[in-house]
């Protein structure tokens, strides 16, 4: 099972490197989208707790 996991990880890293080298603009857009989603989720959590404290 460890061998299969290692092979999958290597394939994912190889695909990411290939994508980064062949389409750097699209890779940057994907990263920006992911960061934006995480940031938006963080803001939503802060807004929730702020509303909860304010009553």
TrEMBL record:
It comes from the Bacteria. Keywords: Membrane, Transmembrane, Transmembrane helix. The chain crosses the membrane at residues 7-22, 34-53. The keyword Transmembrane helix applies. This is Uncharacterized protein.
